[in-house]
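Morning. Coffee machine broken again, so started the prediction first thing and wrote up yesterday's gels while waiting. Chain of 209 residues, entered below exactly as on the submission form.
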Amino acid sequence: MSAPTLTDFVLANTTLTPVPLVPEVLLHSAVEAMDLWELTDHDQPPFWAFPWAGGQALARHLLDHPGLVRDRKVFDLASGSGLVAIAAALAGADSVTANDIDPLSLAAVQLNAAVNGVAVRTLPGDQLDSDAHGADVVLAGDVFYDADITALVLPFLTRAAARGALVLLGDPDRAHLPRDRFRAQARYEVPVPLTLESTETRSATVWRA
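Came back before lunch.
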């Protein structure tokens, strides 16, 4: 799909909706994951079309503690809908970069950032070999859902923390989260889509590397 087609696809298959735990933020969100997944014809689910529990918790935490990102350069890994990136921008970050390998995600991020009145730079492609482009703060919402992904993401986050970046994660007790590598900062009860999580509420923790 070309860029205009990506934007049109997101608009045609989502509805502008407040995020349950972060009602200050509006997202173009879908209702049914499987139907939308079939339409995208992608290997990965449409992560960009839903406010996942880990992202909601991390976004809430940033808005409640804006000093974590205020006047700082922020990198949001696997941004999905852009929820966490948008929250960082609303909290006063100097600049925010949202990275994702899915072009539909980047189209969604641009739409969602615009409707929330913030500037978010989108960066395509796999950036896991980078240093998060020198960001002061590195954010990741709900990235430990798979063992293979965890093995790729963890070294990236570890390097960022080792060079002095503040690394914050949002995670709803996914099985592959390496808890011994992080410190819990806050815990939230997050409303989630029943069709995605088989429950209406999940507990999610914000962790610091």
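The longest helix spans residues 147-162. Going to sketch it on the whiteboard this afternoon.
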